[in-house]
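Example 9 (inverse folding). The structure is encoded as follows.
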């Protein structure tokens, strides 16, 4: 439905509600002939019919027995402009209604809020309609929320894993509900995973790269190819040897400790989907740790977060991660330990 028509309908209904139907406008002259008419919309008085009974429950009865309150016709005028005409059951003549273009009311925000809006995609200064959010704000919120749910419940495709040439392992989590409610199970490998990793991976790697959907499969789908490619190139340029990369379904960050223990990796770079917010559902993080082992404290981990096209560009992030790994290997520490050693 176009905006002009919405505006027209709104105006007609408001006139009817205000009993202004008899007030004719200056456009009241044009009366469409029968062959010009194409009934677009009929408005019935569904609150109460002539007998005072409510017939909303059965629209077919309304259709057959009661004249609509307003009928709206569409005609093409000679200069190809759209025109709409209305008739109503309490008037004997056709009435054309002046068409004014519909526009959303501009948001009135102070200069300081306008300045702040330039620096953040956060929902600030979005106005309100009475006590509620405006329709466009509400629809955007619903869209972003739906994208967040899709990201959490979605899966990384087989096709992507094949392109990355990685094999897949599982954690102790059986499904998404359990993944969300039992983070501890996402921090432990399944027995099959341990066997597979030991069979397929190079032991004692300088750098072990691992990938997991975590809390956003969309983040991995969108970013991992570019980040992985740039990270591999960066590490190769720095002559840092990479182990055998693999993919973990439903992993949590601290799972890197068990993997570090199993493979005796010097550094682990863990590419994982971030919990989606309502700004981006496609944001990926890289968690890095020097010699992660069972019992590693959180302070020894580092994170490069917000990797997506609206944040840190994936290629840039990959290249940067290589230099972080180099520094970690040099100082033999990560996180707070690295900061302390760097001085
Ligand atoms: C959820 C969350 C938390 C939760 C984690 C609890 C949990 N069990 O989920 C809580 C509230 C505890 C938390 C704490 C902190 N967080 Co936090 N957190 C996040 C958030 C919103 C999502 C993380 C996520 O999706 N992880 C992926 C899932 C799959 O991982 P997970 O295994 O379920 O959870 C682990 C990680 O989330 C990790 N983690 C969470 N935050 C941080 C921060 C750092 C520096 C590290 C190394 C790890 C880490 O700890 C969890 C348990 O192992 C991110 C925002 C983002 N855009 O990523 C910020 C974010 C990662 N956190 C941040 C910060 C600064 C912190 C704190 C240092 C705050 C503080 N001053 O205390 C602490 C550090 C905690 C730590 N583990 O070392 C920053 C990191 C900035 C940076 N680039 O260094 C982020 C990016 C937020 C931001 N925009 O500022 N965080």
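The amino acid assigned to each position is listed next.
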């Amino acid at each position: 439905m176009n905006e002009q028509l919405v505006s027209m309908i709104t105006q007609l209904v408001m006139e009817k509600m205000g009993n202004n139907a008899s007030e004719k406008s200056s456009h009241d002259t044009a009366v469409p002939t029968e062959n010009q008419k194409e009934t677009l919309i009929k408005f019935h008085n569904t609150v109460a019919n002539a007998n005072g009974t409510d017939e909303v429950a059965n629209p077919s009865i309304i259709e057959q027995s009661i004249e609509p309150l307003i009928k709206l016709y569409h005609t093409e005028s000679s200069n190809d402009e759209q025109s709409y005409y209305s008739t109503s059951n309490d008037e004997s003549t056709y009435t054309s209604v002046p068409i004014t273009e519909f526009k959303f009311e501009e948001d009135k925000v102070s200069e300081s809020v306008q300045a702040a809006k330039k620096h953040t995609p956060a929902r600030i200064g979005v106005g309100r309609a009475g006590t509620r959010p405006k329709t466009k704000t509400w629809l955007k919120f619903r869209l972003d929320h739906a994208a967040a749910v899709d990201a959490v419940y979605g899966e990384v495709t087989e096709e992507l894993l094949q392109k990355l040439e990685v094999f897949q392992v599982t954690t102790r989590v059986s499904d998404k509900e359990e993944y969300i409610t039992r983070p501890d199970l996402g921090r432990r490998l399944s027995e099959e995973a341990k066997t597979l990793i030991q069979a397929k991976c190079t032991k004692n790697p300088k750098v072990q790269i691992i990938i997991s959907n975590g809390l956003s499969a969309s983040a991995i789908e969108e970013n991992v190819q570019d980040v992985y490619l740039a990270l591999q190139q960066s590490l190769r340029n720095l002559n840092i040897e990479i182990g055998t990369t693999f993919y973990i379904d439903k992993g949590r960050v601290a799972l890197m400790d068990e993997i570090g223990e199993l493979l005796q990796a010097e550094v682990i770079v863990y590419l994982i989907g971030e919990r989606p917010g309502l700004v981006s559902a496609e944001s990926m993080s890289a968690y890095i740790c020097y010699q992660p082992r069972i019992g590693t404290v959180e302070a020894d981990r580092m994170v490069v977060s917000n990797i997506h096209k609206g944040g840190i560009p994936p290629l840039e992030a990959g290249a940067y991660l290589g230099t972080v790994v180099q520094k970690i290997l040099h100082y033999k520490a990560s996180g707070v330990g690295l900061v302390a050693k760097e001085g």
